[in-house]
Amino acid sequence: MTIERIIDKRERDLGGGFVVGRVLPFHARRMVGPFIFFDHLGPLDLAPGIPRELDVRPHPHIGLSTVTYLYSGQITHRDSLGFEQEIRPGEVNWMVAGSGITHSERLEYARAHGANMHGIQAWVALPVEAEEKDPSFHHHAGADLPEWDEHGVKGRLIAGEADGLSSNVTVHSPLFYQHWEMQAGARRSVTTAYPERAVYCAAGQIEIGGTVLGAGQMAVLNGRDGADVTANQPSTVMVLGGEPIGERFLLWNFVSSSKDRLEQAREDWTAGRMKLPDADHAEFIPFPEVAK
């Protein structure tokens, strides 16, 4: 069998009514390679003047990288390192939490102009040797993210290496992360270079080895088995995976190979020892009001 299992997204409220579709972690499949979280944002039409309660207020992370990628809309990122960055469609926000960082995700553009919000936020767990590295923030666009357009598939390599291409996004373990826009009837093979891989249908309908996936479904593939993805209709597809990095523990927004380290992070956040983004000192998410 080409497919190990299919995972359906489950609704989760990030607070204030902003609902996402959570795919990873799943009880029977917590990670795919180093990918430990996978949230589908929208599609959601927002009118001008939306309330600030829909914003994701300042919250902390350790032991992972957050990867924000949009199909439409815009998000304002602010973090405790002092970065403020607008995230636009086709761009990549790659924030390395390492030993600890806090950030907020604001819907400032939609509040002013209205927007259709649609995208993916993934978390990539860091390998043990990088779990406590200094936090950092990187924004990538354009030539940093190799693209192709062939046989009815427009693609972008968001991170890692695959199909002879390499992204300029710095990663800390072997992985790949791709965005495919497929015309109806188009077909493309998933790389077999990694032992753990998954295909997510974000819009449309696709087929893998005779199994049909609709929007909001992820197919986790078996080992390095060959897999062809066929679009039954115009479809937006995310393809991801990598080398496994070992067991990870998860507590709220924290990821670590050590349960003791998770408890320390919880205590640091509760005691106010983690710096907030400069523009966001008036409000933050207390532990554990909202679990992302």
Give a structural overview.
- The protein is 6% helix and 50% strand.
- Strands 1, 13, 14, 15, 16, 18, 21 and 23 form an eight-stranded antiparallel sheet that branches.
- The two termini are 33 Å apart.
- The model has no long low-confidence stretch (mean pLDDT 93).
Order of helices and strands: EEEEEEEEEEHEEEEEEEEEEEEEEEH
Mean pLDDT: 93
How many beta strands in the DSSP annotation? 25
Approximately what portion of the residues adopt beta-strand conformation? over 45%
Domain count: the total is: 1
Tell me about the biggest sheet?
8 strands, antiparallel
Backbone CA Rg: 18 Å
Uncertain runs are none
Just name the CATH architecture.
Sandwich
CATH topology: Jelly Rolls
The number of helical runs is 2
Identify the CATH class.
Mainly Beta
Q: What's the assembly state of these chains?
A: single chain
Question: What would you call the shape?
Answer: globular
Q: What is the CATH superfamily label? A: Jelly Rolls
- What class would the helix/strand composition place it in? mainly beta
Distance between the terminal alpha carbons, to the nearest Å? Answer: 33 Å
